[in-house]
C-alpha cells in the first residue's frame, strides 16, 4: 500500500446539475422496482393474469364489452399495485436501510428526492400500461376513442399521484414489516370490495355510497367511462381522487421519517 | 466547525448535556466514548439531521441545517445507507451524480477493495463491505468536511488500516474530519484532537499526547504473571507513592514514577515469589487508562 498521491482528496465541493441528479435518481429507483421479483409479480404478473382471467372467464360479472371493462379495472389495479402497495413497501425498507438519510446527506435537494420518486413511479406505471394494453389487444380489445384515451391518461396520472401519496403516507411512518403487512391487506381489500374487481352494482345502497368515496372505485369508474364509453369521467371520481391525494400528501409531509 | 453548550434530549433522556468541541480546519477530531455516550447524537446534530435542544452549532460558518452545506460535507452514518436491492457501483454513482466534481467512482471502489462486489446488491454485502461503500459515498463528492460515525466498526484489520490511511490522506489534503470511535488506538493514531465523552458530557479533551502523559510521575509498569499473587510485600518494598494492583486476572499494574530501581525491585520480588514476569512493559498511560481514571469504568463494558 503506497498511499495516495497528494491532492487526491483536495476539497472541490459543489452540487451536481439538477437534471443529472433527477435523471440518476429516477433511473435508479425505476430500475430497482423492475428488477425486484416481488415487485414485478405484484405490479405486472398478477395484473396481467387477472386481465386474462377476467376477459376469458365469466365468473365475475362484468359489463360488455367484457375485455374493455376488464382493461379499465385492471389498469386501476395496476396503479394501486405499484403507486400504493409497491411504493409503500419499498419506502418502508428503504427507510430501514437508511437510504433516505444517505440521500438527504448529499447535495440532492429534498424536493428533488420527492420528484425523483414520483418520476420513477410514473415510469413504472407507463411500463405496466404498455404491457397490459398489448395483452388486452391480443385478447381482442377494441381500443378507445382518442378522447377516451386522453381522459384515461389524465386519470392514470391523477391516480398515480393520489395512490402514490397514500403509499408514502403508509410507508413513510411505520416499521417495514408492518408496512408490508398493511400494504398487502389494503391491496386485497381494495381489489375485492373497493370497487375494482367487482363493480358496485351488487352491493347494498349504503355500502355503494361508501365504496364510491374510495379512490380505488373512483379510479376504476373513471377509467370505465374513458376507456369503454369514450367519455369524460364524472366529476365525483375526479374530486374523490384529488381529495384523497391532497389529504394523504399533506399528512405524509408531516409524518414521513427519513430513518 | 464549532459546537458549544450542545444539549439534545429524547423525551426525558438527556443524550447530550452541554457539549463543547471545535474542529480546526484541516484537522482530525476523534470523539471517543462508550456505547450510549451520545456520539452519534452529537454527530447527527452537526450533520443537520437532528435539531439541538440547546447550545449552538456552526458548521463551516453556517447553521448545520442549511441546505447549502450539504454539498460541502460528506457523511458516513453509523450503519445503513443503500437501497436494499441497489448494486454497490450503482449506489456510488448515484451519490457521485449529486456532486459537481466527484472522484471517479470506479477508482474509489477499487481503492476500497469493492471492485469485486460492484454488482452485488447492497443487502447481500457483508457488514464491512457496506461500511466501505458508505465511506466511499461520504468521500466521492470531494467534501471540505467529513463526518465518519464509527468508520471502522465491523472491518477486518486490513480494511481498518486502509481507513486509517485514507483519513491520513484526507487530512494532508486539507479535509477536516470528525470521527467517532470506541477504539483508543484509533483515536491515538489518527486524531489531532481527542474529545472523550461519557453520559453526554465531555470528560477530557486535548491532543492524544496531552491526554496520555500529563505528568512524568504518571507512568505505569505492566506485567503478566500467575493470578492472585500477594502484593503486600511488593508494596512494602517499593518507594512511597507507587500504587500496585492486579488490574485484571493475571495482569499487574504499578503506577507512579517508574525508574530503573522500581523495575529492579519488581523483578527481584518476582524471583522471590518464584514466578516469571511476562510481557513486562513500562509505558505512558493509554487513552484507555485515562478513560478508566476519569469515569471509573472500562471503555468497553
Ligand atoms: N432516537 C432515539 N430515541 C430515544 N433515545 C435515543 C435515540 N437515539 C439515541 N438515544 C439515546 O441517547 C443516548 C446516546 O445515544 P447515541 O446513539 O448518541 O450514543 P453513541 O455514543 O453513538 O453510542 P454507540 O457507541 O453505541 O454508537 C443513549 O442513551 C440512547 O439510548
Ligand atoms: Mg453511535
From TrEMBL, chain A:
Annotated GO MF terms: ABC-type transporter activity
Cited Pfam families: ABC2_membrane
Primary location group: membrane
GO CC term (a single one): ATP-binding cassette (ABC) transporter complex
Stretches assigned to the ABC-2 type transporter transmembrane domain: 23-227
Any one GO BP annotation for this protein: response to antibiotic
InterPro entries: ABC2_TM, ABC_2_transport, Nod_factor_ABC_transporter
Entry's transmembrane regions: 40-60, 72-93, 114-141, 147-171, 178-200, 234-253
Keywords linked to the UniProt accession: Antibiotic resistance, Membrane, Transmembrane, Transmembrane helix
Protein topology in the membrane: Multi-pass membrane protein
Superkingdom of the organism of origin: Bacteria
Protein name: ABC-2 type transport system permease protein
Amino acid at each position: 500500500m503506497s498511499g495516495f498521491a497528494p491532492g487526491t482528496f483536495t476539497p472541490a465541493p459543489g452540487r451536481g446539475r439538477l437534471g443529472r441528479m433527477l435523471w440518476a435518481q429516477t433511473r435508479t429507483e425505476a430500475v430497482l422496482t423492475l428488477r425486484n421479483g416481488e415487485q414485478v409479480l405484484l405490479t405486472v404478473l398478477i395484473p396481467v393474469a387477472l386481465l386474462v382471467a377476467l376477459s376469458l372467464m365469466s365468473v365475475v360479472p362484468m359489463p360488455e364489452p367484457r375485455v374493455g371493462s376488464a382493461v379499465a379495472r385492471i389498469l386501476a389495479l395496476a396503479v394501486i399495485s405499484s403507486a400504493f402497495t409497491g411504493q409503500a413497501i419499498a419506502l418502508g425498507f428503504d427507510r430501514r436501510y437508511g437510504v433516505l438519510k444517505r440521500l438527504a446527506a448529499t447535495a440532492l435537494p429534498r424536493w428533488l428526492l420527492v420528484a425523483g420518486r414520483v418520476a420513477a413511479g410514473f415510469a413504472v406505471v407507463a411500463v405496466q400500461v404498455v404491457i397490459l394494453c398489448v395483452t388486452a389487444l391480443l385478447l381482442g380489445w377494441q381500443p378507445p376513442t382518442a378522447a377516451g384515451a386522453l381522459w384515461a391518461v389524465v386519470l392514470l396520472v391523477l391516480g398515480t399521484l393520489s395512490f402514490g401519496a397514500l403509499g408514502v403516507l403508509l410507508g413513510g411512518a411505520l416499521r417495514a414489516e408492518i408496512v408490508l403487512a398493511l400494504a398487502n391487506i389494503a391491496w386485497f381489500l381494495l381489489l375485492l370490495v373497493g370497487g375494482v374487481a367487482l363493480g358496485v352494482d351488487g352491493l347494498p345502497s349504503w355500502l355503494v355510497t361508501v365504496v364510491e368515496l374510495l379512490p380505488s372505485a373512483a379510479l376504476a369508474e373513471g377509467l370505465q367511462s374513458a376507456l369503454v364509453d369514450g367519455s369524460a369521467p364524472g366529476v365525483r371520481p375526479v374530486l374523490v381522487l384529488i381529495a384523497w391525494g391532497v389529504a394523504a400528501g399533506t399528512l405524509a409531509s408531516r409524518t414521513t421519517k427519513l430513518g | 466547525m464549532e459546537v458549544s453548550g450542545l444539549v439534545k434530549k429524547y423525551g426525558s433522556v438527556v443524550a447530550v448535556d452541554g457539549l463543547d468541541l471545535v474542529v480546526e480546519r484541516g484537522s482530525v477530531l476523534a470523539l471517543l466514548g462508550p456505547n450510549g455516550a451520545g456520539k452519534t447524537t452529537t454527530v447527527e446534530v452537526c450533520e443537520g439531521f437532528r435539531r439541538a435542544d440547546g447550545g449552538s452549532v456552526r458548521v463551516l460558518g453556517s447553521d448545520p441545517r442549511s441546505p447549502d452545506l450539504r454539498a460541502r460535507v460528506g457523511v458516513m452514518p453509523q450503519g445503513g445507507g443503500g437501497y436494499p436491492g441497489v448494486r454497490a457501483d450503482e449506489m456510488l454513482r448515484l451519490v457521485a451524480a449529486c456532486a459537481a466534481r466527484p472522484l471517479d467512482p470506479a477508482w474509489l471502489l477499487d481503492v476500497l477493495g469493492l471492485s469485486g462486489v460492484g454488482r452485488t446488491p447492497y443487502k447481500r454485502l457483508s457488514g464491512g463491505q457496506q461500511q466501505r461503500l458508505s465511506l466511499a459515498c461520504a468521500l466521492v463528492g470531494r467534501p471540505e468536511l467529513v463526518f465518519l460515525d464509527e468508520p471502522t466498526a465491523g472491518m477486518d484489520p486490513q480494511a481498518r488500516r486502509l481507513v486509517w490511511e485514507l483519513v491520513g490522506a484526507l487530512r494532508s489534503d486539507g479535509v477536516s474530519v470528525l470521527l467517532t470511535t470506541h477504539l483508543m488506538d484509533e483515536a491515538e493514531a489518527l486524531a489531532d484532537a481527542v474529545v472523550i465523552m461519557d453520559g453526554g458530557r465531555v470528560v477530557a479533551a486535548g491532543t492524544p499526547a496531552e491526554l496520555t502523559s500529563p505528568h512524568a510521575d504518571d507512568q505505569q509498569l505492566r506485567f503478566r504473571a500467575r493470578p492472585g499473587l500477594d502484593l503486600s510485600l511488593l508494596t512494602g518494598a517499593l518507594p512511597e507513592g507507587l500504587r500496585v494492583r492486579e488490574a485484571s486476572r493475571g495482569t499487574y499494574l504499578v503506577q507512579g514514577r517508574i525508574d530503573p530501581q522500581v523495575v529492579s525491585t519488581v523483578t527481584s520480588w518476582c524471583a522471590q515469589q518464584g514466578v516469571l514476569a511476562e510481557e513486562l512493559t513500562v509505558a505512558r498511560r493509554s487513552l484507555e487508562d485515562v478513560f478508566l481514571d476519569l469515569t471509573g469504568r472500562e471503555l468497553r463494558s
